Amino acid sequence: MPLLDFVMYTFLVVVGIQVIFYVLFYSRFAFSKQQRTTQNVVPVSVIICAKNEAENLKTFLPSVCAQNHPNFEIVLINDSSTDDTLDIMEEFKATYPNIKLVNVKSIEAFWGNKKYALTLGIKAATHEYLLFTDADCKPLSENWVSEMTAHFSQSKSVILGYGAYAKIKNSFLDKLIRFETLVTATNYFSFALAGMPYMGVGRNLAYTRKEFFDANGFINHIKVRSGDDDLFVNQVATKSNTVCQYSAASFTESVPEQTFHDWYRQKRRHVSTAKLYKTPHKVLLAALYISNFMFWLLAILLLATQYQWKIVLGAFLLRIIMQYIILGVSAKKLKETDLIFFFPFIECFLILMQLFIFINNIISKPKHWN
């Protein structure tokens, strides 16, 4: 078989794999309808762990304090900050009686480990239902607490939410960050709706104290400094206990990294935890990335040589059109429609960056919460 024949057939197989992912997984989220809430108003502990986040707390904590929910407390965890974080927390506590402070001092065994600080905060929480966000996040609705916790029930103990990033005009980095966030959210919502929840994001995530303590907290990955959100969800989330919450009123929004270097370092931390996912999740995610990479590599090669260009172009357009339709509908659900035009261009760049991150993480370990 001539080499280009082999390349073309490989390309067609890759396109087939991509179509399967879009039809069997991505379409589940794109064409799903948000489950109706149970209208279950439960007492909630909102948990925010902060390390040197004084300015962010001043900016974003008021929107958490102003939530329209009849019974919630805010557990603020100062994780050994060296700035004015603790002072700012105490100022807020003096104004809002539903704030509880947990001041964590580093100990040698858990130095710089966010999971240790979070564990102390969860133990200090009053309520069974826990809602997590970050110090640099703001809820996009005064009903965020109610929306994120309304699905809790005897059988539903893990709620996956969406943590968006703020839009910055004329910024390619912002579009890259938001596209990567959109794709990640589409992945974890789609897999969860397919009965295979594999991760969530700590910017907007809820679960019960019982779920936490039944799993012995973060003990299975306590030595891995990242993964307090995705690794824990990967461990405890199941088809029967997990709900996806993606109503607009349930979103949070964070400030994106301001430099490419900071974003790259952040993604190195995030990617480093994927190797600890359950085997079926690792296999599917690896197949997804490899097929994405091979799709663009082989398409460019075949179109450049014009080999069987009508067949190649037809397969290429099939996949691109499916992406625009299915990921476009997902972008509309998540209020990211301004990214739709840029899909193919940003995707190519992101695939290359993910390859560099993977190689870089093999060469040297990424830095974590510090």
UniProtKB/TrEMBL annotation:
Alphabetic keyword roster: Glycosyltransferase, Membrane, Transferase, Transmembrane, Transmembrane helix
Cross-referenced InterPro entries: Glyco_trans_2-like, Nucleotide-diphossugar_trans
A Pfam family reported for this protein in Swiss-Prot or TrEMBL: Glycos_transf_2
Transmembrane segment boundaries: 6-26, 283-303, 309-327, 339-363
Coiled-coil residue windows: none
Residue ranges of every copy of the Glycosyltransferase 2-like domain listed in the record: 45-177
Domain of life the protein comes from: Bacteria
GO molecular-function terms, A-Z: glycosyltransferase activity
Family from the record: Belongs to the glycosyltransferase 2 family.
Name this protein carries in UniProt: Glycosyltransferase
Organism: Pseudotamlana haliotis
Lineage, uppermost ranks: Bacteria, Pseudomonadati, Bacteroidota, Flavobacteriia, Flavobacteriales
